[in-house]
């Protein structure tokens, strides 16, 4: 079996976290001395350098990195085999249509705020002459690699330019029911309820600017600059008025000062179909990284045949590892504040962060936003 065949079988069956590096035959050496699987990947090293310096402020896991990851999701998830089956255009998935047809797509309600990162990314696409779909996937992977604890991100090359804007109504909203969200994810990418939970790990490095525009930059956990499992702890804490008494569609009150909690995350953390998988991430960094590595590769290639794409994962930097599993209850919180929702397994025992409860710092939006 050739390496290529081996890879095809692996990627269609289960994308093992060991694929990266292990199964890919290195075939080209770039002018910077780095070895990659194909010479076509070499062109992405200068792009890497450019965006690390000029988009991600010297390789930060800040708002630009978070928004670039969110952009991957909102571009990719806009694909619907169900619409196609009705003879309608179902969108092109991870095709960059959200950037090319930004005047249409960033006006869709769930895409609120994404005009900003599209505006920041566009000049790099023009300057480097790559397709918008490939660039969005690349920027999402590089941005997350700037967050300590992130997996080794995969990057596949070969998305043609989009021909049409995606239709409205395909991107999930924080006020959707769990049924609605699971149905949409199943249609878009045959993502099941477990894979939907894996995808939501992205909210470990996230903040909200538009759920409540009067309170922008509110992170979803206490560590928005680190890809850790703290998000899965905090979403399980009680102390909420439900539904959001603040009147913000899709928000439930967070028990932690300075943080935002989405209704959808709150409900998925408590639904019988998803609660055990949600809890399984608490303090399990290696599960977090391996599941997200796999699912990001699937998300960022939606609508494309991965076996025809070029694996350029070698270009993506390796993020700083986190030492051990360090999930904590926030200061002042303990097991008694947990609303356990997994009938099979007790919530893991965690230490409580020391000190008085403090408000988490905002994530400053990009300048000029
Ligand atoms: C499945 C249902 C999902 C819903 C309902 C949802 C909803 C939201 C909402 C409302 C925000 C806040 C936006 C704002 O006000 O600025 C947000 C932020 C974010 N989402 Fe999601 N999301 C979902 C899944 C995902 C997935 C699958 C990813 C990526 C793989 C993702 C990545 C992000 C990131 C990184 C942010 C932070 C953006 C920033 O800090 O500027 N989300 N999401
Ligand atoms: C972490 O998750 C993996 C994969 O599900 C599991 O085998 C392992 O036992 C988990 N570790 C802990 C400490 O729960």
Automatic annotation (TrEMBL):
The record marks 70 as: Transition state stabilizer. Ca(2+) 2 binds at residues 204, 221, 223, 228. Gene3D superfamilies: 1.10.520.10, Peroxidase, domain 2. The active site is at 74 (proton acceptor). InterPro entries: Ccp1-like, Haem_peroxidase, Haem_peroxidase_sf, Ligninase, Ligninase_C, Peroxidases_AS, Peroxidases_heam-ligand_BS. Pfam families: peroxidase, Peroxidase_ext. Residues 130-316 form the Plant heme peroxidase family profile domain. Ca(2+) 1 binds at residues 75, 93, 95, 97. Residues 1-21 form the signal peptide. Residues 346-369 are annotated as: Disordered. PROSITE patterns: PEROXIDASE_1, PEROXIDASE_2, PEROXIDASE_4. Its EC number is 1.11.1.-. SUPFAM superfamilies: Heme-dependent peroxidases. One of its GO terms (biological process) is cellular response to oxidative stress. Disulfide bonds join 30-42, 41-312, 61-147, 276-342. Keywords: Calcium, Disulfide bond, Glycoprotein, Heme, Iron, Lignin degradation, Metal-binding, Oxidoreductase, Peroxidase, Signal. Its cofactor is heme b; Ca(2+). Heme b binds at residue 203. Belongs to the peroxidase family. Ligninase subfamily. This is Peroxidase.
């Amino acid at each position: 079996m050739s390496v290529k065949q081996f890879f095809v079988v692996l990627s269609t069956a289960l994308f093992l976290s060991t694929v990266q590096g292990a199964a890919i035959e290195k075939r080209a050496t770039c002018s910077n001395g780095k070895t990659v699987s194909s010479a076509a990947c070499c062109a992405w090293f200068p792009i890497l350098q450019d965006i690390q310096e000029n988009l991600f402020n010297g390789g930060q896991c800040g708002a630009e990195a978070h928004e670039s990851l969110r952009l991957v999701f909102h571009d990719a998830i806009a694909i619907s085999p169900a619409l196609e089956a009705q003879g309608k255009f179902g969108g092109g998935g991870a095709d960059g249509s959200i950037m090319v047809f930004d005047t249409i797509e960033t006006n869709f309600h769930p895409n609120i705020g994404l005009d900003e990162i599209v505006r920041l990314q566009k000049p790099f696409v023009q300057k480097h002459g790559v397709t918008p779909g490939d660039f969005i996937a690349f920027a999402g992977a590089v941005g997350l690699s700037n967050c300590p604890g992130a997996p080794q991100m995969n990057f596949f090359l070969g998305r043609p330019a989009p021909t049409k804007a995606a239709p409205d109504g395909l991107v999930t909203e924080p006020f959707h029911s769990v049924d609605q969200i699971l149905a949409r994810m199943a249609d878009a990418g045959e993502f099941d309820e477990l894979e939907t939970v894996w995808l939501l790990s992205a909210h470990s490095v996230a903040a909200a600017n538009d759920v409540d525009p009067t309170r922008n930059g509110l992170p979803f956990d206490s560590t928005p600059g680190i890809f850790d499992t703290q998000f899965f702890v905090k979403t399980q804490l009680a102390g909420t008025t439900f539904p959001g008494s603040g009147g913000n569609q899709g928000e439930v009150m967070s028990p932690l000062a300075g943080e935002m909690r989405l209704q959808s995350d709150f409900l998925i953390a408590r639904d019988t179909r998803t609660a055990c998988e949600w809890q399984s991430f608490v303090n399990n960094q290696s599960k977090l990284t391996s599941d997200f590595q796999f699912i990001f590769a699937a998300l960022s290639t939606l609508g494309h045949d991965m076996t025809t794409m070029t694996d350029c994962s070698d270009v993506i930097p390796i993020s700083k590892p986190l030492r051990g599993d360090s999930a904590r209850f926030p200061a002042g919180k303990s097991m008694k504040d947990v609303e356990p929702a997994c009938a099979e397994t007790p919530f893991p025992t965690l230490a409580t962060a020391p000190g008085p409860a403090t408000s988490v710092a905002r994530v400053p939006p990009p300048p000029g936003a």
